[in-house]
Amino acid sequence: MREDMRPCDVELLERLNSVNDVKIYSVFDEEFATYGRVIEGIPFDGIIERLKEVQMPANGNVYVASDGESERICDKRVQSVIYGGMDVQVGYCVGRNTTYNGFEYHKCSELNVAATPFMLVLGHVWQIKGNTFKVGDEKVFFVPEGVCIELYQTTLHLSPLRVSDDGFRAAVVLQRGTNTPLDGHIERTAGQESELLLQKNKWVIAHAEREPLVRQGAHIGLIGENKELKY
């Protein structure tokens, strides 16, 4: 664990580990290296303040792919340096999630900026077997407030999980058009990657209990308990 983690973050991480039956790592731990990296040297204070203005839903999560105000104040180095000049969208996800629910992946990296602390359940695309992923092969990571992380395109992820009654708030940066409706009919083949395609640049494996995803047409492929993480 990085020595520069704040004492309050260390205390929170210790508490999360004490109340859960799975190991909770920090994104500053070496175990995170194959999933992503911590972005340093680019300020995200304005976006964090912006997310504090976003209304928290009473239940569930709210995801907005592109938020004009967040895009206006986002440091231009995000697009020019991290994404190599590719057009990006800056949105957010806020909510009260506590369960695994499934995984998604994109054919580009994703940035998450923690306006509140939260947890992420992560896997690797090479752990998908026959369009299924077995619960137990994942790792769970704690993201402290104020930290920006890059999730590599080979990293399976989904919504953050809250670590308090107040819910979570995260900015989400992706190449523009990601997580938006597909244009026209897409031919899907059982057992092939196309079976997982749900939206533009968004491939999804859902747990059968995650009804909102299943109703959207997500492939049911997360096998095992839809674990709930405590705080």
Architecture overview:
- With 231 residues, the chain is of the alpha+beta class.
- The protein has a single domain, classed as Jelly Rolls, CATH 2.60.120.
- Helix content is 17%, strand content 29%.
- It has 5 helices and 16 strands.
- It has helices spanning 7-19, 45-52, 68-73, 77-82, 211-216, and strands at 24-26, 36-39, 61-64, 88-95, 102-105, 110-114, 118-124, 133-134, 139-143, 148-151, 155-156, 168-175, 197-199, 202-206, 219-220, 222-223.
- The strands form 4 sheets. It has a 6-stranded antiparallel β-sheet with strand order 2-10-6-12-4-3. A 4-stranded mixed β-sheet has the order 1-9-7-11, with helices on one face.
- The longest helix has 13 residues, at 7-19.
- The mean pLDDT is 96.
Say which CATH homologous superfamily is assigned: Jelly Rolls
User: What profile does the largest beta sheet have?
Assistant: 6 strands, antiparallel
Number of strands: 16
CATH architecture: Sandwich
Mean pLDDT: 96
Q: Which percent bin holds the helix content?
A: 10-25%
Judged by helices, strands and strand pairing, the structural class is alpha+beta
Spell out the helices and strands N to C. Answer: HEEHEHHEEEEEEEEEEEHEE
CATH topology: Jelly Rolls
Distance between the termini: 20 Å
> What is the count of DSSP helices, taking H or I runs of 4+ residues?
5
